[in-house]
């Protein structure tokens, strides 16, 4: 029975821990964090884990010699005796003895149950069934919290006895269940009962033909029998990978901080100043979240894999604990009795967010992965070490948490956050994917090649790639072409900076200037910059780009990618000239329209150029150079704005706009220097030139296979006379839908709203003008560095994992921003306190970093690589058009939305993020490491939904051919 509730019941404390009871009743204690810091009280909880730690070493031998079933039966008997003793005792010694017996039960149960489930379950749902163990742990915690909530209200002071006694029910259920189930075929065969094992295997699989699996188990059992000293065998070189992973999973599981919260949830809430009933009620809430979130893991673990769940959860746990630490540090002093209602709700929400992420990741997977990764000959000792380490560190945390809380205070949440960061790195680098791998084939299919089984969204990428070197000409060409993103980024960043410069506003937007100077006339502090003409200055670029991209699509197809980039460069130069020399609003808008045309042409050609010229194994990284240049452009613009804003004479804005000529010239020169892509040359009939270009960029002579693939793709492309009409055909709808959805979602993350108007946003929050631009520079730097993270990881982790992880990070950070601004910034307030100002900036940076390694670059990468050659230009044209249309909408509407929604705008965008994450989870396939002209065969025809569109279309074409 979960002890946290009884340790906050006055009658229980008075009976066994009078010193603690006395401190809880007196208000003059040294620190509010130290009320429950008592070694005897902590020993009451931690003795269970110390006993389990010792018992598991015996349980390993019992599991191997007598079987999984007998071990579970022994565990049940221990549980029953320990429960009875705990419920009837009147002395601390007997109470501890009862906990020790319960600990022995835990040691035996945790040794046998995960192994039993992993061995008996079919491969395809092994993860889901194994997580039933963790699911029952969460159910037990929830029931315990509910029981504690009601027994705490029983008069007479014996409620704690009822709480402890009711643990007898699950103890009896385990004992009865152990008597009824069959042992696993693996255990029976390992112990020499081969016929019985085969019969059980037929029974649990429900089929007669079990010979292949039976032979696999028989082979594994022969190896197991040859091992006379399993614990000694466990440290042999070939067993070290699963051993290291098992040990670290248990250490990390405890150092997430989850057990500290779940053991002492009522104590924690009491420490924060809640009343006793509210404390237990809060614990019930966290218990319910724990149960429901474990169900999430049951559903997803065999679909998206173990690694993705672990990594996503790390981000969620890190952010939520950082927020808890900051809030408690700012609002809860040593002797405070209450948080105000708003902050109390925020703490509970963040605790629930943390518990949810743990419950669908490190909680169940800490048991699942070790139980499935060891070979049969070391499975029992491996599980024993797993349980031993788990109980050892659970004991350390249980014994030390309240002392740590007393000394570290709110800093304890920063301590655990640092551990979460370490475990994220461990997962990325060292934990392989094990989903859908038969348990007795784990060594062959998993540990020989960690990279081969990394989570990839369900797509096999094992097919061989075309041979290619990473040549200097490819790198140089990609860098030169990617400067198109530098111009785009500079335009995005510079507009927000100049629109907060007083001289610029006074010259072109006098109404806005008056509102910013005469603040008393402003209806709301959120509405200072709400002006249609001002918003048109920014959004006209995107409206022009939207229109230009359709012409750019035709030119990209007929004249090539290189020619389109050259035209973009000329348009950028002309637009910069108009903007820098503007003397009226009309010239300013004309310049923005020309820049928009350049954006339309550049964004059409550059991503396609990068995807076609890059080798498939680093296509993602090279394509993201486009987004990296966008972020560099934004950062450069922010630095320029910061410097020019200090210029005297009122002409600093002209320098800001004029310096856009530098990236414009770079793009123009780059377009003159690079070679066009082989795909484009061959598509336009220049076969020999295309073959020579292919040989040049691949750095090898043997390019025949890839060349023939390109020729075949170009033959199909030439048959398409109307690419925009062709793109609507059934076989092209999956690519079209995903491209459109990605562009819509990219804008509705809220990123461009923040990046266009970062200075405006910080002005609205009460920062001074220089501090506003300085904050924008910080955000720009985060944007650049995080995009580099994407370059490194996109071809390793895949597109899906980056998008899903970022969805969680963006959702949480915007939610926190909304809560802080909603509580601390009123309509006419001028300043946040320093602490909250820092918190807002940190959350904005967390949001920007998530976007920068996911939705920013991948929304350009994915559309450029998923269309077949015959519709690639048209598809990219649609993608750019939709992107700019949505950008125009956000740029035109954001300040009006800010005026009406106020802080609620940061609730609006998280709702969109939730929708887009769901879309990615179910509908976006993985494309990493797939050659660009093989995407249809190896991606779309393998996807659970989209293959129906591709196959149906193929069947239809065959029918047409037959009819003729």
Automatic annotation (TrEMBL):
Main location: membrane
Compartments, record wording: Membrane
UniProt superkingdom: Eukaryota
Keyword Transport carried by entry: yes
Residue ranges of every copy of the Major facilitator superfamily (MFS) profile domain listed in the record: 1-435, 477-928
InterPro entries, per database record: MFS_dom (IPR020846), MFS_STP/MST-like_plant (IPR044778), MFS_sugar_transport-like (IPR005828), MFS_trans_sf (IPR036259), STP/PLT_plant (IPR045262), Sugar/inositol_transpt (IPR003663), Sugar_transporter_CS (IPR005829)
Molecular function via GO: monosaccharide transmembrane transporter activity; symporter activity
UniProt xrefs under Gene3D superfamilies: MFS general substrate transporter like domains (1.20.1250.20)
Keywords: Membrane, Sugar transport, Symport, Transmembrane, Transmembrane helix, Transport
SUPFAM superfamilies the record matches: MFS general substrate transporter
Transmembrane segments: 41-60, 72-94, 100-121, 133-152, 158-181, 243-267, 279-301, 308-330, 342-363, 384-404, 410-431, 470-490, 534-556, 563-582, 588-610, 622-643, 655-675, 736-760, 772-794, 801-823, 835-856, 877-897, 903-924
GO cellular component: membrane
Family membership: Belongs to the major facilitator superfamily. Sugar transporter (TC 2.A.1.1) family.
Protein name: Sugar transport protein 13
Species name: Mucuna pruriens
Phylogenetic classification of the source organism: Eukaryota, Viridiplantae, Streptophyta, Embryophyta, Tracheophyta
Gene field: STP13
